[in-house]
Structure formats: structure tokens, C-alpha cells
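From the pipeline queue, job 12 of 40. The input is one protein chain; the requested action is below.

Action: predict structure.
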Amino acid sequence: MKLFRYCVKLFLFPILFFTCANTLADDAWQNASGWWNATDIPAFDKSKITQQLSLVKVQGNKFVDADGKVVVFRGVNIADPDKIANDKRFTKKHFEVIKAWGANVIRVPVHPSAWRKQGKKAYLALLDQTVIWANELGMYVIIDWHSIGNLKSQMFQNNSYYTDKGETNDFWRTVSERYAGVNAVAFYEIFNEPTVFSGRLGVVSWAEWKVINEEIITVIQAHNPKAIALVAGFNWAYDLTPVAAAPIERDNVAYVSHPYPMKVGAPYEKNWTRDFGYLADKYPVFATEIGYQLATDKGAHIPVIDDGKYGKRITDYFASKGISWVAWVFDPDWSPQLISDYNTYSPTMQGKHFREVMLRENKK
């Protein structure tokens, strides 16, 4: 028996040695200081997070907090912080109004073009302040890499959405490391709206898109193991039918759909269930963009035009399936708008509906 234990020790010692050595090497690489590892980007000041929100995680087909209580998220998209700053409205008041509307989550769309224009240091300062204000007000945050197109072919709907795999991975490495341990930043939305635009942006299969997402999620969760990754379907983030046969093979994942009113016709509920709602029986589904406006409203365009009946229909459907949602968009210019102006923050037609639902349902 002594000989056996001695042999086991001889076998395990090299494994333990190399494991420890590799861990030390990783730490040494991260912590080494010198011109080769220098940066002018200050770390996120976590002392500004004076009170943590409850940690949210995926459990089955639900989001739950640290006590195991099911959480359904209902909130709004803000405009890109770069736009809000350019409009000179990047103030805490802007976020206080959103909170007063009853929102428990905000989605922050980061355009690759704005990320590059501002530069990492300046853009992260905007993102930091957004996170700090949201946390103070008790709202969770979705960080969204707001591109539209085909990341495989690297062809996009227009220049503001241009990115590539390297920039996308680096963005998520930067952001996931920066906000690790900040519970308010609960969701990392990998890519806003994947689409091939009927072949105009090349081709990509679900199997290929699945691999791309799984690699990015690996990067995110290596830096922040508790991060929830949000994965969008095709057809501008509407169609989740391929997930049934080939779900994302990572933990803490939820799926995204953008079921705007013109995506399908009647019978709406039946078609929504076929295209994305069926998935809510097995996985969390998060509709990270919904919205509608009349054809005569400012900026009306496909696929958001509706006669006004869509609002109640879609929120009732989400309630029946336990689907979380954020409405597009808390901005007076970007359509469909939730507010008519910055001075009074008067709600539009859809703004009134979504505010009413948030105030009623998020208090329960």
C-alpha cells in the first residue's frame, strides 16, 4: 500500500506542478508591468458600485436572482451613449426618467463605428457612467454590440455597422473583463441583428453562426464566468427555429428575437410561437427589440409600422410565455421613438403602452 501511495504521488506531482506553473504564468502575464503591457485606459472604478444588485443567472428556461426568485425583465433601449452625449443629454436625469417609467433593465447599443470614433478610453468612460447610473437606480444592463449583417462574410447593412471578428472578440474581451463582478451588467448581447439580406451580404449557416457565438462566449466567460450571453437568430434577429436542432453549447445562455409587427402576418401568436416562442419552453428568450408606430409617424419604416394593436398583443404574448423584453427606443429621433422630445419626455403612442405595462408588471 505504501508503494502504491508513493507511485500515485510520483504520478500526480508533475501534473500539480505544471498546473500551478501554468496558473502562475497566466498571472504573471496579466500582472506584468512595463512598456510592453502599458495602457492609458484606467480600470473601471468599482468603488462607484456602492450597492450590488442581486446576481442574475439562467436556471432552466428562466432568469433567477440570487434567492432563486424568477425575474422577468421589462425595459427600454437607450440610444447609443455616443448619440446621447452628442445631443448633450447624457445626464443622470435621462436615466431617472427611464426608472420612473418602471423599467428594470436598459439595453445599451454600442455601434462599432462609435466605438472606433470615440476610441476605447473615451467610449469606456461613457459606458462606465451608464453602468454606474443604472446600478444606482436599480436597473440591470444589457451591453449590445450593435451591428447588422453577416459577421462571417464581414459584410454589413451599412458603414456604421462595419466590424470584423477580431474587433468583435476584442470588444467582448474588454467589456467582460471590465465589468466582471458588477452584477448590474448581467447580459452580453453578442451581435445585434444577424442577416444575409437575401444573399446581398453573403451566406452563413446556423452551424457556422453557432461556432462563432460559442467562441465569443468562451472569451466572455473566461473573463466573467457569471456573464449571461444573449444569442440572436437570423432574419435580423427574428428567427430562432434552427435552435431546436442545434442549441448553443455553453452555459448561462439565452436567446434573442426582435419580433417587430411586420415580421409575420396573422395568426400572429401562432406564427410567433413557430418562429421563436416555442423556445421559451426550454430556454430563456429575451426580445431585446420591440416597437411600433403608425405609417404617418416620424421615421416610419419597415418592419415597425402598425395600426396600434400590436402593443398589447405582443406584451400579452410575452406574459403568457414568460419572455423578457426591452422596447425600442428611448430617443426622440430614432424610430420607433418612445419619447417625443427631450424636454418633457412625453411618451409616444408606443411609449404610453410600454410605460403602463412596466409600471404595472415590474412592481409585482
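Job complete. The two ends are 63 Å apart (CA to CA).
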